[in-house]
Design goal:
Strand order of the largest sheet: 1-2-9-4-7-10
Helix content: 40-55%
Largest sheet: 6 strands, antiparallel
Number of strands: 10
Order of helices and strands: EEEEEEEEEHEHHHHHHHHH
Oligomer: single chain
Number of domains: 2
Shape: globular
Length: 271
């Protein structure tokens, strides 16, 4: 298990956490010392005490309150890999309009612009040159503001759906995450989960806020950002590895989501 504090001021903290399934501490996650927001970089089952488990993946942002206890269940051998952000109690209290410094949800869908925004912050934090504290403080505070504003606009509908439907959707997410290169059809997915294609399609969009294909595409694109940041693999090979029909299909989808091509992202132009 490895947790590293990447950047800290009196107002904000940014860190990275990694634990593999073979680690004795993997299953029992302990408790969270301070309220944080977490951006998963791979997929893993998370279960907060007293709640149903959910698939934490790069399409979500997870919220953890102080003292929160939870368990992990592996989907991949890569285990749990995520980046976390924290702001001071005073700022959090103001942001959530509560004196309890408390998030009222476990997670929420992470829009593509916010996902890209957090990558920009991480790029600055991990650069060799000492980052400017004021710049990063403003960016992290804006990140919190955007997330909490999005959450309020959604009126928490994402968390109030029927429990049995939510369990179905989380199981489908795990299936999709097990191999991003595989293109399962709606018929195949519905058979795997003992439901009808119509019911699965309708319920998935109702609960998740987007269709199955949209969700799978976002999973692929956000996992792809890690590959593009950390290696120089050929884009045609990456398109195949991540289940896109062609390099053109991958590039078009990437630009539609993030406003930049994969090749420019790989070169670090956005940063």
């Amino acid at each position: 298990m490895s947790e590293t504090l990447l950047f800290k001021t009196d107002l904000i903290e940014v860190g990275v956490f990694v634990v593999n399934p073979q680690d004795p501490c993997f299953f029992e996650a302990g408790f969270v010392e301070s309220p944080i927001i977490v951006f998963p970089k791979n997929s893993i089952w998370i279960q907060h005490d007293g709640s149903d488990p959910f698939v934490a993946d790069p399409t979500l942002v997870n919220f953890y309150n102080k003292g929160q206890t939870y368990k992990r269940y592996a989907i991949h051998q890569s285990g749990d890999y995520c980046h976390w952000f924290k702001i001071s109690d005073e700022l959090l209290s103001e942001a959530v309009a509560s004196e309890r410094h408390h998030f009222n949800a476990q997670n929420m869908p992470c829009p593509a612009p916010i996902f890209l925004q957090h990558l920009v912050i991480l790029k600055q934090v991990m650069a060799e040159q000492q980052p400017d504290a004021l710049t990063l403080e403003e960016q992290v505070l804006m990140l919190f503001h955007e997330l909490l504003s999005q959450h309020k606009r959604q009126d928490c509908l994402f968390y109030k759906k029927q429990a049995r439907h939510k369990r179905l959707i989380e199981a489908v997410k795990e299936t999709l995450q097990s191999d991003l290169s595989v293109n399962l059809s709606l018929q195949q997915l519905s058979k795997l989960h003992n439901t009808s294609p119509f019911h699965l399609s309708r319920v998935f969009k109702s609960i998740n806020g987007q269709g199955i294909n949209q969700y799978r595409t976002q999973q692929r694109l956000r996992s792809l950002t890690l590959e593009l940041q950390h290696n120089q693999m050929d884009l045609i090979d990456l398109a195949c590895d991540y289940g896109f029909s062609s390099h053109s299909h991958m590039s078009t989808s990437f630009k539609q989501s993030f406003g930049i091509t994969p090749s420019d992202f790989q070169k670090g132009i956005i940063f």
